[in-house]
Amino acid sequence: MEIVFLAFILMLSIFLGFELINKVPATLHTPLMSGSNAISGITLVGALTSAGAEHTVLATILGTAAVAMATINVIGGYMVTDRMLAMFKKKGGSK
């Protein structure tokens, strides 16, 4: 019975996330990207905790994979944010 509730929560979160992202105006994407990078940092801390828990070999391997993927997500997110912020900088040397 628990799997039904978990599947329902997953489907509800996917639908809600899709609807919320579609309603965000373009001017708010940069601040939201920075906020999601902070959440990805929290995910990285959880992945590090999971990788270092020393429960089983499989858990350590999955934790290490989670650390690698979360790190890629954080770095990529900050690169995209930096690129989006660069679009708002003035071009040229005039003051």
UniProtKB/TrEMBL annotation:
Keywords: Cell inner membrane, Cell membrane, Membrane, NAD, NADP, Oxidoreductase, Translocase, Transmembrane, Transmembrane helix. It is found in: Cell inner membrane. GO terms for biological process: NADPH regeneration. The chain crosses the membrane at residues 57-81. InterPro entries: NADP_transhyd_a_C (IPR024605). It is a multi-pass membrane protein. It catalyses: NAD(+) + NADPH + H(+)(in) = NADH + NADP(+) + H(+)(out). It is an enzyme of class 7 (translocase). GO terms for cellular component: plasma membrane. The keyword Transport does not apply. Its EC number is 7.1.1.1. Residues 8-90 form the NAD(P) transhydrogenase alpha subunit C-terminal domain. One of its GO terms (molecular function) is NADP binding. The transhydrogenation between NADH and NADP is coupled to respiration and ATP hydrolysis and functions as a proton pump across the membrane. This is proton-translocating NAD(P)(+) transhydrogenase. It comes from Zhongshania aliphaticivorans.
